[in-house]
């Protein structure tokens, strides 16, 4: 993403304020968003979305608002929905954020990143969890960047996405970058605030068209809401059926009884209804026959079908929530792999929002972020286990890869690892300039591990393995 033109068009920055170094000039030449906005031809938005954009300028998107309100209600009353959102947010934020370098590392950028995380509370797990849960439930993550008097980003506030309206034309492009978004009260339709493009970052989950800025994202469980309604209705009917048809019933057959005698007998039986009755006494011809309860209460294939249909549209398999039944371990592992890919894509979406905020902080400090090759990522990716990461890192070490790439492959923050190693050397060694850390010898034997994978062997310098 080319950040510089985006913020310059918002009216906050001027290119002359940035240092005119060779790296900055090369970075400026790569910024193409302004050209994309002005040199594109044709209509980007679909005819239906074009009309929808015009209507949404007067109020919030009713379809998105209804979907978000319904999902919040589902999350409140159904523990399965709550667990899906909670598990996704927990898996996404596990390990926290890290600054990953693809090019030459810069100590000044690292220091600015650490200060940025401290002010915006990105080192707080609860903050990250709230943002991730809101993104999964709403399908969008709008973050308002708050500046202090020293022109530092001091806060990243998550806004309710159903109240944010992009101010776009019928082509899906912003009318004015300095007033790109507005917040509208859904009840009174009153406009509450307007935000510049740099002031509010909106990342979207699977929009209809990424280039159409008026298309917002959709919640993960948006398409499963109808199935959920049918499932809950069927489950409620199942309980009502059991309550009325499961108990044993009695048929009292009384021949020759008058109306008064029938009423007296019925009143006597009803008065003893709370007690266990084993005997009935009559002085006329009659009988008490037992009517057995429904013998087919275990036939719930319709509930099982709706449950399978619901979880087939959810990001996580039902086996992760206790519905194991006859699910084999191999099938569950494959389904977990698909779920982890969904989690990784959500990580990329959320980290992109934090990257825009960090780039804004760099621009406020007079640093061009496009002059440095870095990315903001979550430290732990879920598609690999910790053992798989460690094994891959050891194999990269055996191949002679640089140490920093090995630490990144292991899922560690390189800056933190180097700082801790330096601190440990300075505290333990009487000669700080000499490092006390020795690299062990790693050897790989192809085909000597389960599933025909290569085995990894680690040995120290003394020959002990």
Describe this structure in words.
It comes from Endozoicomonas gorgoniicola. This is Phage portal protein. 45% of the residues lie in helices and 15% in strands. The strands form five sheets. A three-stranded antiparallel beta sheet has the order 3-2-7. Strands 4-5-6 form a three-stranded antiparallel beta sheet, with no helix packed on it. It contains 15 helices and twelve strands. About 3% of the residues have low confidence. It has three domains: 255 residues, no CATH class; 111 residues, no CATH class; 74 residues, no CATH class. With 465 residues, it is α+β, with helices and mostly antiparallel strands. Helix 5 crosses helix 6 and helix 9 packs antiparallel against helix 11.
């Amino acid at each position: 993403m080319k950040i510089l033109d985006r913020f310059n068009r918002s009216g906050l920055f001027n290119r002359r304020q940035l240092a005119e170094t060779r790296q900055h000039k090369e970075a400026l030449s790569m910024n193409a968003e302004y050209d994309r906005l002005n040199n594109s031809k044709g209509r980007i938005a679909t005819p239906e979305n074009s009309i929808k954009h015009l209507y949404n300028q007067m109020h919030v998107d009713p379809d998105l608002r209804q979907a978000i309100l319904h999902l919040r209600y589902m999350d409140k009353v159904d523990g399965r929905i709550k667990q899906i959102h909670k598990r996704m947010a927990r898996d996404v934020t596990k390990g926290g954020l890290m600054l990953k370098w693809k090019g030459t590392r810069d100590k000044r950028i690292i220091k600015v990143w650490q200060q940025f995380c401290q002010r915006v509370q990105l080192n707080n797990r609860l903050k990250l969890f709230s943002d991730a849960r809101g993104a999964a439930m709403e399908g969008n993550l709008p973050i308002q960047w708050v500046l202090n008097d020293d022109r530092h980003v001091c806060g990243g506030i998550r806004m309710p996405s159903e109240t944010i309206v992009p101010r776009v034309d019928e082509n899906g492009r912003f009318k004015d970058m300095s007033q790109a978004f507005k917040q509208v009260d859904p009840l009174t339709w009153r406009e509450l605030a307007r935000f510049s493009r740099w002031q509010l970052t909106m990342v979207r989950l699977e929009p209809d068209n990424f280039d159409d800025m008026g298309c917002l994202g959709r919640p993960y469980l948006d398409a499963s809401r109808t199935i959920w309604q049918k499932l809950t209705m069927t489950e409620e009917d199942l309980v009502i059926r059991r309550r009325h048809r499961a108990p044993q019933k009695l048929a009292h057959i009384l021949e020759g009884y008058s109306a008064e005698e029938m009423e007296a007998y019925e009143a006597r039986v009803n008065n003893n209804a709370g007690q266990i009755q084993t005997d009935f006494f009559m002085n006329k011809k009659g009988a008490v026959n037992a009517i057995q309860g429904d013998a087919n209460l275990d036939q719930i294939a319709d509930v099982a079908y709706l449950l399978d249909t619901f979880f087939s549209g959810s990001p996580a398999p039902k086996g992760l929530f206790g519905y194991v039944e006859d699910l084999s371990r191999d099938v569950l592992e494959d389904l977990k792999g698909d779920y982890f890919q969904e989690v990784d894509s959500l990580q990329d979406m959320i980290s992109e929002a934090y990257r825009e905020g960090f780039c804004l902080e760099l621009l406020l400090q007079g640093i061009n972020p496009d002059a440095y090759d870095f990315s903001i990522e979550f430290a732990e990716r879920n598609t690999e286990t910790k053992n798989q990461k460690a094994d891959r890192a050891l194999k990269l070490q055996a191949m002679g890869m640089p140490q920093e790439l090995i630490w990144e492959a292991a899922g560690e923050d390189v800056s933190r690892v180097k700082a801790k190693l330096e601190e440990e050397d300075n505290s333990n060694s009487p000669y700080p300039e000499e490092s006390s850390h020795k690299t062990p010898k790693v050897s790989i034997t192809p085909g000597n591990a389960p599933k025909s994978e290569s085995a990894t062997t680690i040995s120290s310098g003394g020959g002990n393995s």
